[in-house]
Amino acid sequence: MVHASLTATAASSTWLTGFTVCLSLIASIGAQNLFVLRQAVQGEHVRACIAWCVASDALLVALGVAGMAQLLGSSPILAQWLQWGGALFLLGYGLFAWHRALFAPGEGLDASGTRVARGVLGVVGALALITLLNPHVYLDTVVLIGSIGARQDGWLKAVFVLGAACASLTWFVLLALAGRRLQRVFADPRAWRVLDALTGAMMLVLAWWVWRG
């Protein structure tokens, strides 16, 4: 009984660690989060976006826990390249958002001002590119979260990854619910211009922060 109690306590503590560490890092303004929020506002393939985000977060954290975090941590040069690459990615994403706000405010709208629907593969494919081509994502999930999970003993590593996946699911469901609340606001095409302008500004600030380390 005592052994079972200690095992349950260790598992719950490890799960909570994975949950809190992951939630503290992903609950911030980022390219992936803004993409999901945008899709939730449009009401377009939101469940598929959430499924992709949770699965990719779990996979990247698991890779870090399995040893990739130690590999990247032992290579300062590679970590530096990831930092610079992440800054450049965020810079490009921000400038692209500003281009939409200033020069293509009607992009994605039909003649009546209604959003043009896209297929699920196109939406998830775009989200996958934003996720996997952003080097800053690897610093967060593989290096930072993965290195903490790698310190867990034996089967508790899997519990840590499960906790991280639950945090990811919780965050993106909340993000989707927030997007649904904003749907009436974004019935006005001008609101999309404001969103793109704010997105560009936030991405440029984040790029500067990542560049400075």
TrEMBL record:
Give the molecular function GO annotations: amino acid transmembrane transporter activity
- Organism, by scientific name, is Oryzisolibacter propanilivorax
Q: Lineage, please?
A: Bacteria, Pseudomonadati, Pseudomonadota, Betaproteobacteria, Burkholderiales
Task: Provide the topology term for how it sits in the membrane.
Answer: Multi-pass membrane protein
Q: Which residues cross the membrane?
A: 15-37, 49-69, 81-98, 119-138, 158-179, 191-211
Q: Which InterPro entries does the UniProt entry name for this protein?
A: LeuE-type
Tell me what this protein is called: L-lysine exporter family protein LysE/ArgO
Cellular location(s):
Cell membrane
User: Cellular component per GO?
Assistant: plasma membrane
Coiled coil where? none
Q: Which UniProt keywords apply?
A: Cell membrane, Membrane, Transmembrane, Transmembrane helix
